[in-house]
Amino acid sequence: MRRRQVLALGVGLVALTAGCGDGPARSRLASATLPMMVPGPAGGDCDRVAQALKAVAERNALVGGVQVLNRPAHAVLTEFTRARHLKQVLMAEPQLVGTVRTVRQEGAFAGTTPLARLCGEWEVLVVPVTSRLKSFAAFADAMRRDPAKLAVAGRGEGGVDHVLYGMLAQSLGVDARTLRYVGYPTTQEAVAALADGRVVAALASHTGVRDRIRAGQLHVLAVSSPDRITGVEAPTLLECDVHLYCADWRGLIGPGGLGDDDRAALIGLCHEVAESGRWRELCARNGWTPLYLEGEDFRQWLRVESARLSRALGELGLRV
To answer: What is d(CA 82, CA 95) in angstroms, rounded to the nearest whole number?
Structure first.
């Protein structure tokens, strides 16, 4: 069977260089407190990015203050789109697409104003170093033979790990509904399941498992980045003839009905954060890859990616 080409989260990975934070727009936020809704608990993956953005924006006096409001991931997008507050923003991530259980013609982020994509984490497919699956080719063969027997762990159902597994199946000609995916609340729990033999492989962000990789506890079969990850001796999926790359991205969106001046000010804030040395330092420290994309380009990218993720969720049987 000819493999279908699947490109996930891959449009516009090159950062824009044009700025849009002029003096008047910037001054609109200089003394304001900006509420930012964040999916998941304090200390979670999305919250860490939000706290980094808050730290840079406040340190550089780009805004009077940022108020981080943690919300349950399954409900935050609905709450945000229904809110009447026109001065708040939402930290967006791929998992939010899975919280919209019915297809929206305008996309999962309908009713919002996309501002900027900020950064992302690349995914890795890992097995224990003692695994009989020594290469991605061996893993792919096992998936084709009996996908229901190949238990793979990752974070919760419908999240980026699960969606990536479904896209892998699609690319390899396997019915995604036959996959055996075991979702856990955290990467640490997924890796624990891998260690005690409850699953044979796991999908995770590179950052979440890099210490175990360095310690020689996990073997990486493939990485989801377009280029190899420094320090990881593993091929990209593209090198394995799987036409797919995927990042667990983070971006900022505003409410629907946002005025042009407020939109320009918020995009200017994102741009100045992304251009700051402190932000680049925090990205390097946390294993985040800068993936800056702003304004109309981000809006178009988000619409396309939302549709792709929605299709993948449908093929997994999670879209009703």
So the answer is: 19
Residue extent(s) of CATH 3.40.190.150 domains in the chain: 23-120+247-315
Class of domain 23-120+247-315: alpha beta
Q: What is the DSSP letter of 5?
A: P
Tell me the C-alpha distance between 283 and 280, whole Å.
Answer: 5
Q: Where in the chain is the domain with CATH 3.40.190.10?
A: 121-223
Residue type at 112?
T
What residues form DSSP beta bridges with 250? 119
The DSSP symbol for 97 reads G
Note the pLDDT tens digit of each residue in 66-112. Answer: 999 999 999 999 999 888 777 899 999 999 998 876 666 567 898 89
CA–CA distances in Å: residue 171 to residues 8, 75, 125, 285, 314: 11, 31, 15, 33, 15
Superfamily assignment of 121-223 in CATH? Periplasmic binding protein-like II (3.40.190.10)
Our CA dihedral for 210, 39, 283, 255, rounded to 10 degrees, sits at 150
Are 17 and 71 in contact by the 8 Å Cβ rule? The answer is no
CA separation (Å) from 245 to 184, 237, 300? 23, 7, 18
Q: What does the pLDDT look like over 110-139, one tens digit per residue?
A: 889 999 999 999 999 999 999 999 999 999
Question: From CA 36, how far away is CA 309, in angstroms rounded?
Answer: 24
| pLDDT value at residue 177 | 95
Q: Using one digit for the tens of pLDDT, what is the confidence trace for 273-307?
A: 999 999 999 999 999 999 999 999 999 999 999 99
Query: Residue 249: which of 306, 193, 198, 295 has the closest Cα?
Result: 306
82 class by beta-carbon count within 10 Å (0-12 exposed, 13-18 middle, 19+ buried)? exposed
What global pTM score does this model have? 0.88
